[in-house]
Every structure is written in structure tokens, then in C-alpha cells.
Design a protein that fits this description.
Layout (H helix, E strand, L loop, with lengths): L9 H10 L3 H4 L3 E11 L2 E10 L2 E12 L2 E11 L8 E3 L8 E8 L5 H15 L5 E9 L2 E11 L2 H8 L2 H9 L10 E5 L7
Parallel strand pairs: 5-9
Antiparallel strand pairs: 1-2, 2-3, 3-4, 6-8, 6-9, 7-8
């Protein structure tokens, strides 16, 4: 919970789910997104991002295929809501390959100088990360309030480390209330000659 480790037995988990208010009844956003899926023979691991209630869960699910059916073996989750500023993504990064993305930030009027200054600090710190190959921020030519960031990481693990770094968390927290809908639009890219 909120980044702190805890565990529940199956009975505790089922009791909690049975007695809680459903996401639909809460009226709050509910969204599930598959980040990666890795299948090896009859086993599989999936990384899922779930926005529910006031939480943003990063989930790791393991499966075993028995008699033609995929059965859930384990579920690990961690709330990362305090590490992001409501990022939305399009595309799926592939494990063991470079993670390349474009992040677009729409700055609210009056906060341009503050956000661009914070982003410059973020750019300098990010380019010092061992797993970051490129982090370049540009202002959209026809829209000075739109900033486009091109990012390249050695792999998805390096990208995940970047998102949880102290400078990234500080930036995400700083821009709250200063960018449109508190959201950073993220699009993952794949090389044209990639077989993934």
C-alpha cells in the first residue's frame, strides 16, 4: 500500500474484494492496460497497469497453462500513484529491447516558464542515468505551450528505474496543477525493422 510492502492470504483478499465498494459504484476512473506479456512454453508473466479508486497499480501476474487453460499462480502489486502525474500511454514496450518513447506535455497558461525550467533540470539529470541513452525536450513550433520529449532507454528496466528516480518523482509532483489534466501523454515507438 502506497509503496509499502504487505501481504494477504487468499481468504483475506477475497473477503476484502467481496466487501468493498466496486470501482463502478465509486464513480472513479477504472482502466487496465497490458504493459508486457512474456510466454515461455506453459508459463507466462504479464505486467499490468491498473488505475482504480485513488490508486495506480503496477501488477505482475504469473500464469501456468494446465489442460489448455491459463491459470493464475501469483499476483504482485504496488501502488505507484505518487510516482506519476497521471501518465497515459499508447503502445507496449517490449522486454530486453530499447524502450523508445515520445512524451507530450501541454502546459497551462501562466506556468510555461516554471514547467520548462523544471523540465530542463529533469533533462540534465535524466541524461546522467546509466540506462538513459537520450532525453531531449523540445517546444512544439506552432504551440509554445506544448512540449515534446524524446526518450531512449537501454531496456524497459532502465525506463522503470527512470520513472522511480528522485528527479522524475520531483518533476511529476511539481507539474501537478500546471499541466492540462495533470497528464503526460506517452507514445511508445518501435523501429521499422524490428521483429517485435
Amino acid at each position: 500500500m502506497r509503496g509499502q510492502p504487505y501481504a494477504k492470504t487468499l481468504k483475506q483478499y477475497l473477503d476484502g474484494v467481496q466487501n468493498r465498494q466496486s470501482p463502478k459504484e465509486s464513480g472513479k476512473p477504472f482502466k487496465g492496460e497490458i504493459v508486457t506479456i512474456r510466454v515461455v512454453n506453459s508459463i507466462a508473466v504479464a505486467e499490468i497497469k491498473v488505475t482504480m479508486y485513488d490508486f495506480v497499480y503496477q501488477e505482475f501476474l504469473s500464469f501456468h497453462k494446465i489442460d489448455g487453460r491459463w491459470l493464475l499462480v501469483s499476483k504482485l502489486i504496488s501502488d505507484i500513484a505518487d510516482q506519476i502525474a497521471g501518465a497515459t500511454s499508447t503502445g507496449t514496450p517490449v522486454a530486453d529491447t530499447k524502450t523508445v518513447l515520445i512524451a507530450t506535455i501541454h502546459i497551462l497558461p501562466g506556468f510555461e516558464e516554471e514547467v520548462k525550467g523544471a523540465l530542463k533540470t529533469m533533462e540534465i539529470a535524466s541524461n546522467k542515468e546509466t540506462g538513459c541513452e537520450q532525453f531531449v525536450a523540445n517546444t512544439q513550433k506552432d504551440s509554445p505551450q506544448a512540449v515534446v520529449v524524446y526518450e531512449v532507454y537501454k531496456n524497459d528496466e532502465a525506463f522503470q528505474l527512470h520513472k522511480t528516480s528522485s528527479h522524475a518523482k520531483a518533476f511529476f509532483e511539481f507539474v501537478k496543477g500546471k499541466i492540462v489534466n495533470d497528464k503526460i501523454e506517452t507514445v511508445f515507438l518501435t523501429e521499422l525493422n524490428s521483429s517485435k
